[in-house]
Each structure stands twice: as structure tokens, then as C-alpha cells.
Amino acid sequence: MTKLQTIVLRFLSVNCYIVSDETTKRALIVDPGSSPELIQKEIDKANVKPEGILLTHAHVDHISAVPEIAAAYSIPVWLHKDDIPLYFAKENELQPWMSAVPDLPQPVEECPTAGLEFRIIHTPGHSKGSCCFYFPRDRFILTGDTLFNGTYGRTDFPGGSYHEIMDSIKNKLLKLPEDVIVHPGHDQETTIGEELENPMFA
Fold it and tell me: CATH class for domain 2-201?
């Protein structure tokens, strides 16, 4: 059985997720955007064994705790190849609140799985390499900043595209079963069925 835990981080209330196998305790950490001490506290409390970091995209608010978490557990980091330039960009910052992240580990090409069953869905639009992680057996998807409860991610950042994000949502995400629970990068969950009724995506 797969367990999903949400940690609401301090900066911009990013949702960081710990996905783990309840039997083996092997785990993945998705979008450690800030508050590394909080993430480590929750990992210790859950008594899981992190085996990798997955990033839905490379914007600074979703990656700033990557160096600390990767080093603490000696684990690799994966993100889509199209977001690697953004990941390392000096311009990837939100001044005056958050600077570009130093000492980021080089991403790996092969995505770690920790023995979990999921599918990577490339959903460009919020960024070139935005991805969602779909767990079909468990009927949930982690959508990062592509699909939110009632809306979609911003497309006015470099590499963003309204046309691409609408295509990603309508032709990839909304084709999933209606009972799939959507866990976004910020705010509250929704379902595919609820978003199918959203006139924004008609």
C-alpha cells in the first residue's frame, strides 16, 4: 500500500510530498522547496527511508531545500531534462525573498522509484519540463504547478506557455479516470472529475 504525506512548507506554502511503501518504508520526496529541517523532522517521524528526490519542475520555490535533503540522505535528484537549464540558472530566484540555489546536485537521468508504481507525465506549460507523477493503482496524481484546485499554473514565467499548459491539462491530465485525486504544488486537492466540470478547461 502506498502512503502519501503532505508537508506544507513555509515559503509560498509549497506542498512537499513524501510517498512511501507502507511495508518496505522505501520513500521518495517530491518538491522539497524550503524548510529542510521540517522535511527531515517529518521523514524521521514517518520512519521511512528516502531513496530519491523527484521534482515536478525547477522553479526556485520547489527546489531550494534540494541540496540539504539530498546530502542528508545521500539520494539522487530527478527532473525532466527540459528543466535542467532552469534548475541551474542564476536567474531562477524570487528576490528579495529567495535567491538562486547554490550547490545543487547534478540530476540523474534514470528516475528513482523506491519500488513504487507510478508514471511520469510530461506536462509543459508552467515550465518546459513540468511533469506530473501519476500513481494509477492508488488513484492519485501529483501535479506540481500544472493543475490546481479550480485553476492552472502561471504561464508568464520564462519558458511558460498558455497553449502548452492547456494542451497538457486537456489532452493528458483530464483524460485520466475521474476519481483520480489531484494533489497540486500549492493549496488544496481536487479530482479529475471536478476539473472536468471546470469551464476554464472546456
Answer: alpha beta
Cα separations in angstroms, 74 against 52, 64, 152: 9, 17, 34
Question: Model pTM?
Answer: 0.97
For residue range 49-108, what is the model confidence (pLDDT) as tens digits? 999 999 999 999 999 999 999 999 999 999 999 999 999 999 999 999 999 999 999 999
According to DSSP, the β-strands at 181-184 and 140-144 are: parallel
What angle, 0 to 180 degrees and rounded to 10, lies between the N-to-C axes of helices 36-46 and 66-73?
Answer: 40
Domain ranges of the chain: 2-201
d(CA 86, CA 107): 12
DSSP 136: T
* Side chain identity at residue 92, one-letter code: N
3 close to 28: Cβ distance less than 8 angstroms: no
Q: Output the nine-digit C-alpha cell for 21.
A: 511503501
Residue 151 pairs in a beta bridge with: 148
Dihedral, CA of residue 126, residue 143, residue 65 and residue 111, to nearest 10: -100
Distance CA 63, CA 170 (A): 27
Alpha helices (H) along 83-161: 84-88
**What does residue 187 show for φ and ψ, rounded to 5 degrees?**
70, -160
